[in-house]
Amino acid sequence: MTNQPIRHIKSEDSLDRFAREFLEVLLQDEACYLWNPAEPETEAYFERLEQNFSLLDSLDSEEIAPQAEKFYDCLHQCWESAEILQAKQSILQRFGHLVPCDWIDAIAEQAARLIAENLSPIERLVACVNPLLSNWGEEDLQVFARPLVYTMRGDNGVKVAPWDELSEIEKVRLTMKIAQEVLTELQQTNQ
Which top-level group of life is the source organism from (predicted)? Predict the structure, then answer.
């Protein structure tokens, strides 16, 4: 009799059985995917696969095309919303302690709408913050946007202080800086 516990013997048996099954799977003959569509047996291979796909029998290409377009539109929207969410999370980590979160959400949503529009960088930045800073004129906002959009000498930094302690001008600068960061991130993910 061996001194090994029963549990250890059972685990050895299951390991042997697993190894045998694994080898069977690895060594079994399977049809390889035909990579060259010009080979004559490729057509037969694809016809066999399509026989298992009953949707093709019930729908013709005119019915499939609109459904496929809807599917791809849905995928595109999911991808875009993931990019927006990623940019929003990044900005929240960097600026969430400085600015109310609803401002960051509003900036990110507005930036996502404007990123595809054919606007100049200043127009895009001003349009991004305009709903939040509606008491400021567009020309005034452009003055704050210029140093962020165009490379200029000097510090483009913003004062780091709690939101309630910032002056109105400092709030505008911080909002512009956040909007510029969101737009930059979204442009980088779209490229």
Answer: Bacteria
